[in-house]
Amino acid sequence: MKKVLKIIGIILLGVLIAIGIVLYHFRGQIKFYINAAQEYSALKNNLESVEVTKDLNMSKDMDYKDIEYKKVNGKAVTLDIYEAKKKLKGGSPVILYVHGGSWIYGSSQIPELMEPLLNVFRNEGYTIISVNYRLTTNEIDFYKQVSDVKDAIRWVYKNKDKYDFNTNEIGLVGASAGAHLSLLAAYSGNNQFKDDKALDNYSSKVKWVVDLFGPTNLNSLNMSIATGKLETAVKNRENSLREKQSIENYMKEYSPINYVKPDLPPTLIIHGTNDKMVPYKDSLELYEKSKKDGNNVELLTLDNGGHDFSNINKKQIFDLGIKFINFIIFNTNLN
């Protein structure tokens, strides 16, 4: 009997040691999660007043506005920086936000729904960078726009010491067209989509990506309800394609679904089932194909949710926030 009790004691001691090792290894994430959960939960009662599609003027709290990360034909392409409110050992993880707008319009202005989420991370030591990219014209196409996003990432690597960035912990959050560009930037190779020679030698690698209702198969888009300007731009692009490449093949070339392969950065996909512009089935296809290749990918389905988070309720907003926070925390090494 004593021998059995001794064996049980040894087993329990081993279990306690193992738990202690796990807790120590993930101490940064655990502390962050407790703080972030308390902070975001405190916002739950105020979420009904949030207008999910409204842009928020965060300029009062912005540390650096319109920072030039590259110049094209004498014109600056810029980003905004919201500095971390807490110092972390090893530097500040970086979240790059890429705006939507059907590739035709939009700016680095951050939507109101995103503000409390991003501020949770700022308060815990992350830097938020909101990226502008060149908008679609007859001369500006998907290649240049993805190159802009990747050059913004390369700029972060280049300016690591100046702003105390932790370049081992860079993530992308994109909405709609911005999610499309973010997925292409995250899934494409380091030497793909290059534009600015001054940034050529810097990495464009990211740790993770969050896709908010992003187009993954461009041939499935309902161009007619996106915006007349986009439909016109695509038709103009079709007329100017070199070597008479079909518009279908052109759209296929810039569809993230065709960049899925093993060892992609962890991806969180968030999409509503009632999206009339970007079909929900495309996100489901991206999820299933990526899962089949062994990638770390998650899908949050918003029942009856439309494009740009329209028609979602207070509980869905809260669940979305918790999923968003959990995903980033558990894909960041804060120790």
Description:
With 335 residues, the chain is α/β, with parallel strands linked by helices. The chain has one domain (27-330): Alpha/Beta hydrolase fold, catalytic domain (Rossmann fold). It contains eleven helices and ten strands. The strands form two sheets. It has an eight-stranded mixed beta sheet with strand order 2-3-6-4-7-8-9-10, with helices on both faces. A two-stranded antiparallel ribbon has the order 1-5. Strand 2 and strand 3 form a beta hairpin. The protein is globular. The termini are far apart. Mean pLDDT is 81; it is low at 4-26 and 47-59. This is BD-FAE-like domain-containing protein. GO terms for molecular function: hydrolase activity.
Tell me, what's the shape? globular
Oligomer: single chain
Q: Supply the CATH class.
A: Alpha Beta
Order of helices and strands: HHEEEEEHEHHEHEHHHEHEH
Distance between the termini: 43 Å
The number of helical elements comes to 11
- Sheet/helix structural class: alpha/beta
